[in-house]
Amino acid sequence: MADNNSSRADALGVSPGEVEQFRGYLMRYALLQLRDQTSAEDVVQETLLAAVEGGDRFSGKSTVKTWLTGILKHKIIDQVRRQSREQPLLQGEDDECSEADVVDALFRADGHWQNFPADWGDPGNALENKRFWETFEMCARLMPVKTARVFMMREVMELSTEEICKELDITATNCWVMLHRARLSLRECLETKWFGRV
Amino acid sequence: MHIPTCRETSALLSQTQDRKLTLFERVGLRLHLVVCNGCRQFERQLAFMRSAVKRYLERDDHPPR
């Protein structure tokens, strides 16, 4: 019986080569969320190690990539918890403009857009352009730290508002406000740096 | 019936990606969008930004074997 079990583990095991091909994907994922090359490299390295060492735990029910992403997600959440202990969301707004400032700058007093969002045409074309992704990376980096943290938890890690609130100890309203601010600033940046020039 | 401003509409459009709006909010949102091209553009841009994040992550990947 023991033999049976080990051969089953071998069949489902994951080789180092197999996980290595996902390093680029995992790095982009970690970097968007953590915004720090060293921390991102650390969590990706730990993920790949954990995957190879615990390869027999790969059930084969999901793809290797989904499985790796799951491991990475846990490691990133640990990091985010540490980051938010060091930089709590609701304290020390000094390194970034307050919510009101960012949104106020984009709207007139009567609630109209200061500059109405432009027609981006068929923005899907940009996705095929390597230079668009450089702009995208730059705009992501330009987002204020805490705003980006919430935005990436929602869009990269695909956590629900409830999960984000729980992790960061903020209210749902606060979370929606930060996501709104994040999307407005990403929009503004992409329009100014990319779509405005096409 | 209060028709939301662009600023309020942009917040509602953003929240559409995070929660189910109330019927009241949805009606106000639709009424605003009918008359406001800028907010209609923002609605499309939100969808684009969401898909762009996903595409960014998948970008250079080798097809799964």
Show the helix and strand layout.
The complex is a heterodimer of chains A (198) and B (65).
Chain A: H1 2-12, H2 16-20, H3 23-34, H4 37-53, H5 64-86, H6 99-106, H7 130-142, H8 145-155, H9 161-168, H10 172-195
Chain B: H1 6-16, H2 23-35, H3 37-58
Helix pairs in contact in B: 1-2, 1-3
Describe this structure in words.
The complex is a heterodimer of chains A (198) and B (65). Chain A has 198 residues and is mainly alpha-helical. Chain A has ten helices and no strands. Chain A is globular and about 60 Å long. Chain A starts with a helix and ends with a helix. Chain B is mainly alpha-helical. Chain B has helices spanning 6-16, 23-35, 37-58. The A-B interface holds A 21-22, 24-25, 28-29, 32, 63-65, 103, 107, 110-113, 116-120, 123-124, 126-127, 133, 136-137, 154-156, 161, 172, 175-177, 179-180, 183-184, 186-187, 190-191 and B 5-8, 10-11, 14-15, 17-19, 37-39, 41-42, 44-46, 48-50, 52-53, 55-62, 64.
Q: Concise description?
A:
The complex is a heterodimer of chains A (198) and B (65). With 198 residues, chain A is an all-alpha fold.
**Portion in beta strands of chain A:** under 5%
Q: Structural class, from helix and strand content of chain A?
A: mainly alpha
* Low-confidence residue ranges of chain B: none
Reading the helices and strands of chain A in chain order gives: HHHHHHHHHH
Rounded to the nearest angstrom, the radius of gyration of chain B is: 16 Å
Identify the CATH homologous superfamily of the largest domain in chain A. Winged helix-like DNA-binding domain superfamily/Winged helix DNA-binding domain
Low-confidence stretches of chain A at least 5 residues in length (pLDDT < 50)?
1-11
Can you give the mean pLDDT of chain A?
86
* Helicity of chain A, as a percent range: 55-70%
The DSSP helix count of chain B reads 3
The total tally of domains of chain A equals 2
What overall geometry of chain A do the principal axes of the alpha carbons give?
globular
The total beta strand count of chain A reads: 0
Report the structural category of chain B. mainly alpha
Helix content of chain B: over 70%
How many separate structural domains of chain B?
A: 1
SSE pattern of chain B: HHH
